[in-house]
Every structure is written in C-alpha cells, then in structure tokens.
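thread: overnight batch results

M.L. [08:02]
morning all. the overnight job finished for the chain we discussed friday. pasting input first so we're all looking at the same thing
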Amino acid sequence: NWRISKNHIYHSHSTMDSLKIASSGQKKKDKKGSGAVQRNYGFEMNKAHGQHILKNPLVIKNIIDKSAIRSTDIILEIGPGTGNMTTMMLEKAKQVIAIEIDPRMVAEVSKRVSTTPYASKFKIIAQDFVKTQLPFFDLCIANCPYQISSQIVFKLLMHRPLFRCAVLMFQREFAMRLVAKPGNKLYCRLSANVQLLARVDHLMKISKNSFKPPPKVESSVVRIEPKNPIPDINFQEWDGLLRICFQRKNKTLGAIFKQKKVLIMLEKNYNTWQSLAATNSTLPQQEVNMETLLEDDTMNCMDEDEKMEEDDNNDDVEVEETGNDAGQMGLDENSVIKGKEKSQEFKTRIMAILDAIDFANKRANKMEIEDFLLLLSAFNKAGVHFG
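M.L. [08:03]
and the structure it wrote out:
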C-alpha cells in the first residue's frame, strides 16, 4: 500500500533505479555511515543518490506565486514527482505537460490528477527529459534534478519557439553562478554563456531543513527569461573565445593571448580561414548544440585561477622553436627563421587587435556580455576565429 502525504512532494534528484517504493510489508533499512536508506512517506530514500522530500508546503506555494501563471498558459514541468506542485499549477493554468522518467512516479501523479476536476488539462510524457523533444509551452516550472542542471538550462534556452520564462530550483552553488555578475568571484564561463541568452534573477533561497532527510546542500529558485531576439553570432566561436578568456579569468587579456598554446591554436585557425577565403570556400556548417558546449564546466568554473596557479609562470611563454625541434621536424635553418618571423608577426597582429579596442588590460572576471561580443567581433573582422 502506498502512503503519500498531500503536503509533501518527492524531490527526484536521482536516477530511476535508485528509487524504491516501499510497501507496508517491507522492512525499514537504516545502516549508519553508508548513505543509509530511510523510509519517508512510503518511499525508501537513498541519501547517497540525493533523494529528499520537500516537506515545506509554503515553498511550493511561493514558487507558484512567483511564476505569475496566466489562465492561458501551457506549463512544462520537469519531474513532477507525486504531483504536489502539479495539482496547484493545474488550478491556475490552461494545461500542464509533465516529463517524468520514473514509471512509478508517472503512475502516481496520473492517478492523483485523475481524481481532480483538472484531469483533462494534464498530460504526462514518460521519457528522459534530456532525450525528449520538447512541446510548445509558455512557462517551465520545475524542481530540477541537480545532476543535469546545465543540460536543463541550455536545452530550455535553445528550444524554439521561445517560452516566456522558467522558474527553476537548483543547488544553491549552481544557481548563484547563473546570476553572478562581473566582479563577483562566482562569475565564470557558465554565467556569461547563460546571460548571453537570458536574463537570470535569484528569487528565493530554500533551506536544507525544508527537506526530509536534509540534503548536504542548500537550494535556490531562479527565474530565467530568454532574450528575444538572441545575439546573431556563431555560438561555437563565442564559447571558444570564452574558454580562452576564462582559463585565467583574473589575468589580463594581453597576458592570456600571449600564451604559446593560444597563439598556435589561433594561428592555425587563421591560416585555415585564409586558405578557404583564397579559394572562395566556406567551412561546412555544423549543428550547434549549446547543451554540450559547457561540458566539464558546470561545477568547475569557480577555481580557474586557483587550479592553474602552479603553472602561471608559463602563461607568457613566447612562440618559438628550438634548433633541436627544428631538426626533429626536418626543417632547415631558413625555414626555422621564417617560421619564427611568421609567428611573431601573428602575435603582433593579435596584440594590435586588443590595443585597437583598448582591451589588453581587461580581465574576463570583470567583462560584461557586451565586452565579449565586441571582442569577438574585433577578432572576426581581423580574420581571427575561434572555431
């Protein structure tokens, strides 16, 4: 027998296999020190997988109120759980479309809604959100699975047609990166990428004590409003530029763009584009997937400077080839000299671009979105590309 409290909502922060619905005949498991499984409100929760019940009904009401739902709105909900927030949204919206990966939650929320007057306004998609083709919607309101936070944000922002806004709960650390402004220590590549496409505001903090059992992290709710229209740029080049600028976000751009590895990469791109231009050719168009542009950057963008501090002394290494390297490459002395001259010429070109817009002394951690757009435009106009 399932015993579900109407005043509590299942917070689906883990994979489907980690959830087990307890029957009345099952024994409670409680092993200390091993991510113990506890039974709460009919569910066996494994804290090691981040399963927690939101026990404060006021939080749900506040999220609904701050979403400003209209009677004509179609709402997308990610992970409805047992349906506490779903039923409240159905009272206000034209329709709620929920996406749920766990078939047991699908059955529970469907059963719960079927007993209300709003059953005809509810639709559920039993699929993995990440792999689902999203339907049209006006609002997205969700208690998000934290381990796919970045994928959720960028999948929503790349969805067309654009929605009005999303009100989403995330882990506090991730949420504060989304809203961080230039000069804030949490401002990173994630911040700039999201704020290029949307306006992000912090709405409310959710204490860990609002969940049972309490998680190890605090939570926050943010509102994301897509910009319309979005900047007409190549997103792969944009992200390529940001990867370079934020690798040492506290260093000047002049120092960053003098690095040997950066100059080599940019010169290679420059030569490729020049060759294509000479033959009136263009690079093949690639499908841009913003959901994967931030791979490995979701929770690791705070310590770019600290984690690379040990080799900061090598940042400004000049582009050069030693005689031994030239011999191994089968180059004669004249080729080596010409190669050095060409590399020095390209370095001078890069520094001239920065000086022309007075950006050599700027630092990524204090640059606005408009600054990065201007920098990308200046490089592109000079034939320098990042993708």
